[in-house]
Fold each of these.
Amino acid sequence: MIPSIVLNDDRSEKVCYNTPDYPVYIRRGLLSRYPDYKAPNHWHDDVEFIRVLSGRMKYNVNGEVTELKAGGGIFVNSGQMHFGFSDTEEECDFLCIILHPMLLASVFPYENDFVLPLIRNRKFPFLLLSPGTDWQRDITAALDLLYENRELRTAPLHALASFAKIWAILSEHAPEDDGRPNRQSQDLQTVKNMVGFIQKNYRNKLSLSDIASSGAVGQSKCCRLFTRYFSQSPNEYLNRYRISKSLDLLRSTDLSVTEIALSAGFGSASYYAETFRQYLGKSPREFRNEFRNSLNPAGTK
């Protein structure tokens, strides 16, 4: 089954923590479970760690693509656009650990002196974790321990202890932030504005001019930003988002394919079916039938 990443209108992720009372998400995943071996591009206020167990993947943070290999991983700071993918459809077995930094802010001095300076550091959007660097290896070892302890009754306490250790290491090695706005942070906010506009208005007919205007940029810059951050054009992003919304309707309703096509913002059922097959390799009806069969396999009641 396709892994569930639920996104808000501004492309931020609604993180489904392991337990609702503690902002800790720890899961093991396979890249092949995502359509086209590509996770949705998203962001969240939490920080994220990817720990590659086997295989490899490429990782896009704010349009900068790096490669993650077995034994290593990546730290992604709060508020950064990111996603993992494989353009060669190579399998990758990985840990995904998402932690809200305010978990460490038990009293104001911790928040003011250690939490906020790191998450607001514009020079530190992400960090590659290499097994060949001692202090980075200490971080990956702490991530492994987080995963091993995830099902203990005292798992939230173990998570807090490991996270505090990781945060101290990151704080000691973070680059110095001069506090000045930079072009990358401005472009990131522009992208968030444009994708938020798309997701609020995807049911309507949208032009490139509409999307660019929502970010207060010209059409050419709009296209460059979408290519940089999403590796796709604004129109392709719009179509993929409409397809993703249609998947929810195919799974959870008995609406006809035509009704779903129009509800998701497509002008016709034929164009919807053509676009759906282009991205998922099957028709909407085939997808719906496969999903329902997976819920009720032959021979079960």
Amino acid sequence: MFQSLSNSLKIPELRNRILFTLGMIIVFRIGTHIPTPGVDGAALLKALPESEIFSFLNMFSGGALRRFSIFALGIAPYINSSIIMQLLVYVIPYFEDLAKNQGEEGRKTINQYTRYGTVLIGALQALGISYMLERVGAVPHAGWAFKFMAVITLTAGTSFIMWLGEQMTSRGIGNGISILITVGILAGLPEAVMQYLAVFKSDDPKDYLAAAALLFIIYITILLIVYVQDGVRKIPVQYAKRVVGRRVYGGQNTYIPLRVNQAGVIPVIFASSILMFPAMIFQWLRGAKFMEPYLANNFVDWLLGVFDYNSFTYLIIYVVLIIFFTYFYTAITFNIQELADNMKKYGGFIPGIRAGQKTVEFLEKTTSRVTFAGGIFLSVIAVIPNLLIKYMSVNFYFGGTALLIVVGVAMDTMRQLESHLVTRNYEGFMKKSKGLR
């Protein structure tokens, strides 16, 4: 890894990409410290709930939510808009045509609709948060003027984060949105370490055992993430020999690499983003006076219990959503029908499997099994924070979700860096070969 970083700094284009990414990260971190106008920071800190779901939201925003900066909404509206658009592709024929038949132009149109959805979702969330701030007394001058200003500020902040992520993806290294989420998580790591040391600071031998056990869990979790992220199911493929003129084509053996975790960290991010809001909405409904004639408080309390971060029902819903999004995202990124058609077109076949529909059925069955294993892996990693909070009173930063995102994004970024290096070396070799001629 360090050798790859050293080599990348020697290539001007790669060096510029890395520096651009670092510059955008600095801009993002500066924005998380710019306060939203009209909010009393001291009163807000006193009114903020000390709940797991709030800590989870704050972790994803890089601390911007607790400081209530202009980036307080974080990247969640963009993620939710992306989920909605990807679902609409399978529901509405117009979007399906854009995705499957319009090529690059269709993808650009879908991305533009995703941006519009981000602005709309961000504005609605900002309006709801402005009501919450006024209710807890964190706004000295409440009223529609503050609500309008808060909606404009927070929506603009989310739109700017979305733009930063897109620019990092196109002009930097790695996936910009994922890197910003990772940076937000890492920004709170020093504070998390201090809290961790405070939990195990006594001279009780049990605390030393608990600290050692936690470090062991973290170590095993990282190893498991790295192992599964690189794990593939290799499906052998043979190509028949073809004679065209005096040349012989084909005849070689290769394989289809089906990754165990084809979807990466996306299912966890999607599931977490969706489950962020029910508890917040029900908490707001319980305190809203206009809802008293329509909803009994005991019913709202029951709903809050269902979506409580440490409840059994929350874990079940969380696992189901992760497995669902694992299958969903794999189906989007891995087109089995197109792969089978290309294999048949170029004379390729899986040993023992007839080309055509039988190949499609075999690949669908195999992919389904591999994807299920990947979904179970993501689910196990994702519920580790709940177990640590319940049994060891340790915060999210040492749990599976944070580690999965950080390690997964780091590995994907390094893979992209390696691919850039291989491409540059190949181009350099070709130039030298041309010069020898």
